[in-house]
Amino acid sequence: MKKQSRREFIKVFTMSGTGLFLAAYTPMNGFFKPGDDPKIFSPSVYLKIDNNGIVTIIVHRSELGQGVRTSLPMLVAEELEVEWENIRVEQADGHPKYGNQTTGGSQSIRKSYEPFRVAGATAREMLIAAAAIKWGVDVKKCYAEKGYIVNKSNGKKLSYGELVDEASKLPVPENVLLKDPEDFQIIGKRIHRTDTPDKIYGKAKFGIDLVIPGMYYAAVQRCPAIGGSAKSFNDSKTKSINGVVDVVKISRGIAVIANSTWSSFKGKDALVVDWDLGPNANVNSEIIRKNLESKLNEEGSDIEIIGKPNSDFSNNINIEAVYEVPFLAHAPMEPMTCIAEVKNGKAELWAPSQNPQGLRSDVAKALGFNEDDVIVHVVFAGGAFGRKLVSEYGIEAAEISKASGKIIKLTWTREDDMKHGVFRPASMHKLKGAVDGNGNPVLFGHHVIAESISAQRFYRALPVKDSDLGEGTKKLSYKIPNIKISGSIVPTHVPVSWYRSVYHTQNPFAVESFLDEMAFAANKDPYEFRKKMLPDNSRLKAVLIKAAEKSGWYNKLEAGKGRGIACAECYESYIAQVAEVTVINNKVKVDKVTCVIDCGIVINPDSVEAQLEGAIGFALSYVLKSKITIENGGVAESNFDEYEILTLNEMPKVEIEIMKNTYKVGGVGETGIAALAPAVCNAIFAASGKRIRRLPVELS
Amino acid sequence: MPEYSLNVNGKIRKVNVEEDTPLLWVLRDTLGLTGTKYSCGEGICGSCTVHINGKAERSCVLTIKDVAGDKITTIEGLAENPDHPIFKTWIDLEVSQCGYCQPGQIMTLAALMNENPNITKKEVKENMNTVLCRCATYARIDKAIDKLVEEGK
Ligand code: FES
Ligand code: FES
Predict the structure, then answer these.
(1) What is the per-residue pLDDT for A27?
(2) Under the phi-then-psi rule, with left for phi > 0, alpha for psi from -120 to 50, and beta for the rest, what region is B41?
(3) What is the pLDDT along chain B (153 residues), one digit of tens a residue?
(4) Which stretches of chain A score pLDDT less than 50?
(5) Is residue A236 part of a domain?
(6) Which ligand is closest to the CA of B42, given by its number?
(7) What is the pLDDT of residue B72?
(8) Closest residue to B139, CB basis, from A613, A647, A649
């Protein structure tokens, strides 16, 4: 039995009667209706128990490969005292009743840690109360264990299934007790992923695999220049292709509907469209770069000021540098896809969405429907990385279905996704630093020059201070007496969006690389230089020290090899990475990355490690290879031969350590990205003396 | 449309499709074998890998005409034996993340190991280097290869 005194009380918000709110959420289907079979006890939108004792956990976030269909159920199972093997997992549709469902910002676990445990604990307490009534004993005489309520005095047991009926009639407790982390049986264990076997057997249905009876297949041709539109089109060749059944115009292009994916692709290629290339037809990467560059000599708008960064530092060693990064495509292996059925003023969609609530409201808006008339089912995503947060593919699918009166599955080709997606913004960074005669930093300045995702997507007049530009560079843990973080928003016609770790893909690259430059100017070891700037109680300092130790920071390396260090705070977690690289003939090979994370309480350590390994590989793609180029207003790259990503042989050896503590749960999926680029580039400097200020790395 | 007779996972399947249809789309749309994935459509990524007479081939760049009469195995065929050492190792090491590329990784590896039981780790890795994984599960693919090659010895 768990020690009651060690449990922590959590307030449950109740309504009158037997209805139940957990936090702000209403129950999914309340309690079972008479005659339902199996009878279902559903004291929370996240949980159902039927009279056969089957526990179903409803996962409201999307499974993108991060293991959320395993880790969220672990939270419920822990408090419910049920054996892991008896858990079933169900995916929630997009609906406000689940609370925030956006699978981004590394928040699936952070934001669910309490509500999901409360759901489990509430059900447990109600089952205990039900058993106490049946036996006519005090609840204190009963406890929950492995799917049963046990009577302490005589050892008798009732299964959860047997108690569902009685429990459903009970009022919901005002407060429930949550376990002390020391008593966890499931949380913190390496639990195998619930979705892995079906995925590797080829049985699991991703968005692109799903078939709805009666469905057709669709593909869209879009304007090569972003922002252009179709003046007219000729579909006679398309219509002569076997299998093509219809061609319809939608807001973003011309859609071909066919009875197979292949016919829809062929039909789309055969369309002859006269495009009005629109206002951006002459824009290219060089012009966009010049726009960013034009801000380099300006100060930008203040984001954060500490001390007096505008005073005179001429008595110190002063350095300056400019960093820059290009646009990037997310390029998940599963291209964009969505099934839509629009009929009689209602729409039903099946999508591998990271943001089903947003998709629901965006589709409702596009079609002029009520949100209540739009249903969004969430399907496995074959990777996402932020790409599947936006709704344009779903709106296209809904428009095609509406215009044709057919159920359709829209599939984007790889080229469609490369050219017509949304992109990590290109940016430039002006860094300024000063160190005094003792080698102590006295000034740090960072001017971020980029398009703001929030300004472009939501509100053009967004003040820089309130924008996203400062993510990953403001509120640094380092104690430097004078800091100035400023920003300039430079609008672009290229649609920008959230990339795995968002501005942490670029700001820490500039910050942590430049700190290396400052250390070098101060003639200090880059690790010691950082360590000295971090306060003793800082969690960042602890991971930094651990990473240095674990990597053998001071061990000598042979010629041509180098070690680089970087650290960052990202979504309430702290990370430090040490990269070891070999540079021969201007070719870079990353041999090893040592990675130490403090992400507070850990739910599934194996998933944390997997996410860190994956993040390191993902970031290494854009450090070494990937880049999106704009030509004639559109994207020049079209497939993986031109937009290269990391391969097996380029993956470094990864060593991970997770700090053990009971701090609040932090984010993991994106945190592994933040320090990687600067760690690698600092290592390249150590190996070759060449400072990398522009990604992807090109040595000459 | 011409009719083709295909030998897929040991069964003869008759399909009516245009002769230029890639095997990938026949498997996915016509036969409902969606374990074989589409990602690049140009033979670059390996997501669509199947076995043609035991050899790993990319089904997006083979037309139905190319494979009529051949013995075709898809991931669903390999998974008829869920205890295959590759599956077991994949689950043991929890290699998969989003899982989308994994059928292609597994089919490529299975063919390599089957064709040459004495294949070295290095040879396997050189061959697997062109099977892309955007989740970058490479660290665990690498471990899985080491384990399987060692066990195969
Ligand atoms: S889809 Fe066939 S190789 Fe990429
Ligand atoms: S596991 Fe996601 S692409 Fe490989």
Answers:
(1) 37
(2) left
(3) 889 999 999 999 999 999 999 999 999 999 999 999 999 999 999 999 999 999 999 999 999 999 989 999 999 999 999 999 999 999 999 999 999 999 999 999 999 999 999 999 999 999 999 999 999 999 999 999 999 999 986
(4) 1-34
(5) yes
(6) 1
(7) 98
(8) A613
Residues A684 and A640 in one domain: yes
Could A646 and B97 be called an inter-chain contact, meaning their C-beta atoms sit closer than 8 Å?
no
Smallest Cα distance from A560 to chain B, Å? 24
Q: Residue A112 contacts by C-beta under 8 Å, 6 or more apart in sequence?
A: A60, A61, A72, A75
Task: Count the domains in chain A.
Answer: 3
The residue among A374, A403, A420 that closes a domain is A420
Could you tell me the domains of chain B?
A: 3-74 (3.10.20.30), 85-152 (1.10.150.120)
The dihedrals phi and psi of A356, each to the nearest 5 degrees, come to -65, -30
- As a whole number of angstroms, the distance between CA A168 and CA A122 comes to 12
| β-strand pairing of A216-222 with A40-44 | unpaired
Work out the number of other CB atoms within 10 angstroms of the CB of residue A408.
32
CATH at A111: 3.30.365.10
**Whether A584 and A630 share a structural domain:** yes
Residue B45 Cβ inside 6 Å of ligand 2? The answer reads: no
Q: Which two tokens stand for residue A79?
A: 């408090």
DSSP annotation string for B36-83 = SPPSSSSSSS-TTEEEETTEEEEGGG-BHHHHTTSEEE-HHHHTTSTT
User: A117 and A47 in contact (C-beta within 8 Å)?
Assistant: no
Which amino acid, residue B72?
A: I
The number of angstroms, rounded, from the C-alpha of B5 to the middle of its chain's C-alpha atoms is 21
Q: A681 CB contacts (<8 Å, ≥6 apart)?
A: A509, A513, A564, A623, A691, A692, A697
Which ligand 1 atom sits nearest the alpha carbon of residue B132? 4
Q: Residue A393: what pLDDT?
A: 97
Place of tokens 């097996």: A648
Residue with the two structure tokens 């919901």:
A172
Cα gap A528→A338, rounded to integer Å: 51
Q: A314 and A335, same structural domain?
A: no
A99 φψ region: left (φ > 0), alpha (ψ -120 to 50), beta (else) = left
One domain, residues A11 and A45: yes
Q: Based on the domain organization, do A340 and A480 belong to the same domain?
A: no
Q: Tokens in use for A129?
A: 């109360």
pTM over 0.80: yes
Q: What are phi and psi of B59, to 5 degrees?
A: -75, -10
What are the residue ranges of helices labelled H in A522-650? 526-533, 539-551, 605-624
Q: What is the DSSP letter of B30?
A: I
Find chain A residues with C-beta within 8 A of B34's C-beta: 202, 205-206, 208-209
Q: Amino acid identity of A427?
A: S
Query: Which ligand has the nearest atom to the CA of A334?
Result: 2
The edge-to-edge listing of strands for the beta sheet with B55-58 is B11-16, B3-8, B71-73, B49-52, B55-58
Q: Is the peptide bond before A38 cis (omega within 30 degrees of 0)?
A: yes
Residue A96 has what pLDDT? Answer: 87
Q: Do A102 and A150 have their domain in common?
A: yes
Residues of A in contact with B148 (CB under 8 A): none
Taking CB atoms and an 8 Å limit, are A640 and B132 in contact across chains? yes
Are the Cβ atoms of B134 and A331 closer than 8 angstroms?
yes
Do residues A233 and A341 share a domain?
Answer: yes
Residues A59, A176, single domain; the answer is yes
Among residues A386, A420, A454, the one where a domain terminates is A420
Share in percent of chain A as helix, strand, coil (round to 5): 30, 25, 40
Residue with tokens 């609040």: A664
Nearest in space to A125 (alpha carbons), one of A106, A110, A144? A144
Range of the domain at A490: 286-327+424-688
The first and second tokens of residue B140, run together, are: 């665990």
* CA separation for the pair A545, A540 (Å, rounded): 9
CB–CB contact B98 A640 (8 Å): no
Domain membership of residue A509 (yes or no) is yes
